[in-house]
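User: I'm new to structure prediction. If I give you an amino acid sequence, what do you actually give back? Let's try with this one:
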Amino acid sequence: MQRILIVGRSGTGKSTLARKIGVRLRLPVIHLDRYYFHPGWQPIEAETFAATVAELAGGDRWVIEGNYSSHMAPRIARADTVLVLDRPRILCLLSVLRRALRSYGRVREDSAPGCPERFDPSFMKFVWRWRGDRINRALQPFTGERIDLRSRRAIGRFVRRLDQRAGDART
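Assistant: Good question. You get back a string of structure tokens that encode the predicted 3D arrangement of the chain. For your 171 residues, that looks like this:
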């Protein structure tokens, strides 16, 4: 696993898992939200974002987390592994609400500079209504290893397997 793509509904733990994988496998971690937004949560121009995603995906080693299904092609062309986080929407919504309360007014490390955490009812609605259809369609051409993780327990088991693999590599 040298180029890992992580996708799924907001609040599934994509950013947290990306950081854990990055540490364990010594891979650079790329949070696409950091590249998509200008300060004040203003989206960048579509062409600029497309070029940025293609450039980031061109790297030899990475963990990229984020959906942006219309910009999936360069990532799936290079990824060797895709992790699809698919936790129940009520748990994702609760996770997003907790994150908003815990980090309100602060810029998280996986957010773009100048984009502090906020309570955004339209984002909450987006989380609730999100369906993985677009992501699954965008992933259809992918021929590498796809791993679906549907619970915190499954995510934890996956991370523990990485720890075992790293331990085996050191011995």
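You can read the tokens as a compact description of the fold. Here is one thing that stands out. Residues 152-170 form the longest helix (19 residues).
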